[in-house]
Design brief:
tRNA processing; 29% strand; single chain; globular; Rossmann fold; 7 helices; six-stranded antiparallel barrel
Length: 374
């Protein structure tokens, strides 16, 4: 067991079992532990929002766990950062016909940026979280690797972590599996030992569709066939569709199996096609972040294009500080712009970027030809 004697760590506590056990393990290892929770919920908290993690009830439970472990606890106000970096971009991405992942933004721009800065200001040597991620200290420096529980691995959400922050982050449960974490919580008598997992987007009441509809008004438009440009249906807004979708399209010829291939808010058009039209053999990503020197990025690597998908082999065609382009050696279905393309070499997290539209020309719409991508 690693000794943390003489070192201070700010442990992010969400009121869940993983962060509770993290605080207990760090205390046992000799660290001076400070428990902290980031407050995201606004004063005018809507019903059914922030009710799992990061809620007033969760803050109460986190404080009680901190008392059980014997560490101080602080509630840190990050409401404005959460609104600016998470909630507003979430709506704007749907308005632009993209599919955002707010958990990636939350980890990148708030937890592992703002919180690390706060920890350094408080004289802490580290920030610790309950993520299922392994930190390895190697000759090359600090690396993030997949957690030992493949069902819980959360490296996908951490690709945007600033590289300079890596040495200051600890993951006490990264080498454990979920049942082991619950057993440790029970052994320590922690009140969160059997607390259920949080699944939903914390700030969204009901469904994403209902939430987005409050901010992006309905606008009737056309559904068109990707190969011919033929109008095959009508819709109430591109924000209500996602790539690959085949149900609930409301096509004029309802017997035809069609998938959403592309969303174009500029012309208010939903484009549909066959299954094969949704297969991507390559992708481009912007807003790239790398957890190693760019010169060391391997030409052959693996990429994961959604949280629950299997990584596939890919070849790097181009990469710079702004983005990268990959050839997918195993074509992927319905790769969604706005989601993350996360790069790996085996278990090691290398970085990632935000997926952009793939290269395609659309059929003519009257006298106008609309390009997708560049």
């Amino acid at each position: 067991m690693t000794s943390g004697a003489g070192r201070r760590v700010l442990c992010a506590m969400s009121g869940g079992v993983d962060s509770s056990v993290s605080a207990a393990l760090l205390k046992e290892q000799g660290y001076e532990v400070i428990g902290a929770m980031m407050r995201f919920w606004p004063d005018e908290k809507r019903v059914d929002t922030f009710d799992s993690c990061c809620s007033p009830d969760a803050a109460y439970e986190a404080r009680r766990v901190a008392d059980q472990v014997g560490v101080p606890f602080y509630l840190l106000d990050y409401r404005e950062q959460f609104r600016q970096h998470i909630m507003e971009p979430f709506i704007e991405e749907y308005r632009a016909g993209r599919t955002p992942n707010p958990c990636v933004n939350c980890n990148t721009k708030v937890k592992f940026d703002e919180l690390v800065k706060k920890a350094r200001m408080l004289g802490c040597d580290y920030v610790a979280t309950g993520h299922y991620v392994k930190r390895l200290d190697t000759e090359r420096g600090v690396e993030f690797h997949r957690g030992d529980d493949p069902r819980k691995d959360q490296t996908y959400f951490l690709w945007g972590t600033p590289r300079e922050a890596l040495p200051y982050i600890l993951f006490p449960v990264g080498t454990l599996e979920k049942p082991q974490v619950r057993a440790l919580a029970a052994d320590h008598g922690l009140l969160t030992a059997q607390k259920p997992e949080s699944q939903n987007i914390c700030f969204v009441p009901g469904t994403v569709r209902e939430f987005v509809a409050e901010y992006v008004p309905q606008a009737r438009g056309q559904i068109r066939e990707i190969h011919t440009g033929e109008v095959v249906g009508e819709h109430l807004g591109t924000q209500f569709y996602t790539l690959g979708q085949k149900k609930g399209l409301g096509l004029f010829r309802s017997h035809q199996v069609r998938h959403v291939v592309h969303l174009d808010p500029a012309s208010n058009t939903v484009w549909v096609g066959d299954y094969a039209d949704c297969l991507w053999s390559g992708l481009r990503a912007s807003a790239a972040n790398y957890l190693l020197p760019l010169s060391e990025l391997p030409e052959q690597l693996e990429v994961q294009v959604r949280y629950r998908s299997t990584p596939v082999p890919a070849r790097v065609l181009h990469a710079d500080e702004h983005g990268f382009e990959l050839e997918l050696l195993d074509p992927q279905f319905a790769v969604a712009p706005g989601q993350s393309a996360v790069l790996y070499s085996g278990s090691r997290l290398l970085g990632g970027g935000l997926i952009e539209d793939h290269i395609r020309d659309l059929p003519q719409m009257g006298e106008q030809r609309v390009p997708v991508g560049v």
